[in-house]
Design a protein that fits this description.
Oligomer: single chain
Radius of gyration: 19 Å
Number of helices: 10
Number of domains: 2
Helix content: over 70%
Length: 208
Amino acid sequence: MPPGRSSDTRERMLEVAERQFAQKGYQGAHLESIAQEVGVRKTALYYYFDSKVALYTTVLERMLRSFERRMTEVMNRDLSHAEKAKEVADHFHDLLAENPNTSQIMIRIFVDRIPVDESRIAPILKRIIQGGLTFFHDGVKAGAFRKLSSRHVVQSVIGMAVFHYAGADFSAAVLGVDDVFATTAVDWRREEFRKMLLHGILADGVTT
């Protein structure tokens, strides 16, 4: 198989698998169904992924690395703690708003017992979580953030951001909008999410 076509096929498999895992969950998504939608035989999946666990792990790994890259880019910029908090909030929100599958898969990670290759996923999650904890702790020491538990802050930010889009129908009903993924609703949520976060963590007198 030509290298370009091979790469395209693998990417198509990941796109379809991501959507099916998000919509049906790990148990509900079947390799046969994924292969049919891609337009290949089930055995072709095993050319790229040796198991369903490997496929799911790759989908999750790609998603987490995308957020890690965004967070790292912000942390490496010459910004104040308050400015970095604003940028991280916007990037995290936009990552979820850009792809409806992201929040669905993330919420399943937290509530379902899904088998993954821990050797690939755990290090990324650890870096992301530890990065958030360290950033907030340093911000407290610098006087930029309130003296709050960094663990509670990180947990609350993740929950507040992910649930909004994972529970899209509920969120739409509460906010009185037709679709939380519509541009106007996304812009509104980004602004409100940022304000709620910054109001909660910034020390008195600190501004962005």
